[in-house]
Amino acid sequence: MTDLRTGSIDQVWNALGELRDSVTVAEARAYADAEAERIQRQRKFWRRLLPLSVGGGLALATACAAVFVMTNQTVPASQPILYSTKVGEIRQEKLADGSVIVLDTNTRIEVAFTANKRQLTLLSGQGHFDVAHNPQRPFVVSFGKNSVTAVGTSFDIAAFPGVNAVTLLTGRVIVAVKPGNSVPTREVVLNPGQQVSIAGNGQFSRPRKVDTGAISAWQQGQLDLSDMPVSDALMLMNRYSTRKIVVKDPDVLNNKISGIFQAGDTQSAVDALNTYFGLTIKEQTENEIIIGR
């Protein structure tokens, strides 16, 4: 006879509770509710129009035309679902269509699906998007005035203050930006292994080949820096910790650094910078470590 222990039962109930409350289940439930509502409206419509069909060909033709219009309506959008991570957290989520997103530290992504479109908004931070193939439902990620449209592909988007970049790992995407109502939309097509940056005025950089392994290293909790200005390296390092590294010397900030760092390991980063540039810790507070010469 199976021995059902109290601890095992509690674990099962806890697991079921977590499944019930997960954002993925909420997303699937919202989409299913919208679909059920659409089907119910169609059934009511049929019941109203079916008696008219016996009255003559005109009534039947009108009914068929009306049903054609209704069946081609878009399924109402589900309520947007917000995915977010805390400082230092990296998390993967599987969406209702089978696509997978990875949220970097301190990142917010909003997801809203309809029958014809998969719309996501990167509100802040950085995300990786592994898109399930579906030509009938484009996968669109908006960030600021910019957007990336894909059908089935894999790409990264960084939306940091003053820094917007899109990196394509596989497939093909169209990156678009609309700076303003009076300015036409600009577009650029990326091929695998290319990255494009977008300036605040909506100007694209020239697509360039990059090391996609280094670009994606954050998904494994690492920062792969190659000949990067210290100012940019500090911006990336500080995203993963509430305790920030501060360097005030402009000569140091303009220098470049290379190496692989563990995301969120502030002390190791400080030790590396001190060794690399001959710096020392000048002051420490709960929120900052100030280093310099």
Automatic annotation (TrEMBL):
<dbReference type="GO" id="GO:0016989">
    <property type="term" value="F:sigma factor antagonist activity"/>
</dbReference>
<protein>
    <submittedName>
        <fullName>Putative anti-sigma factor</fullName>
    </submittedName>
</protein>
<feature type="domain" description="FecR protein">
    <location>
        <begin position="83"/>
        <end position="173"/>
    </location>
</feature>
<keyword id="KW-0472">Membrane</keyword>
<feature type="transmembrane region" description="Helical">
    <location>
        <begin position="49"/>
        <end position="70"/>
    </location>
</feature>
<keyword id="KW-1133">Transmembrane helix</keyword>
<dbReference type="InterPro" id="IPR012373">
    <property type="entry name" value="Ferrdict_sens_TM"/>
</dbReference>
<dbReference type="InterPro" id="IPR006860">
    <property type="entry name" value="FecR"/>
</dbReference>
<keyword id="KW-0812">Transmembrane</keyword>
<dbReference type="Pfam" id="PF04773">
    <property type="entry name" value="FecR"/>
</dbReference>
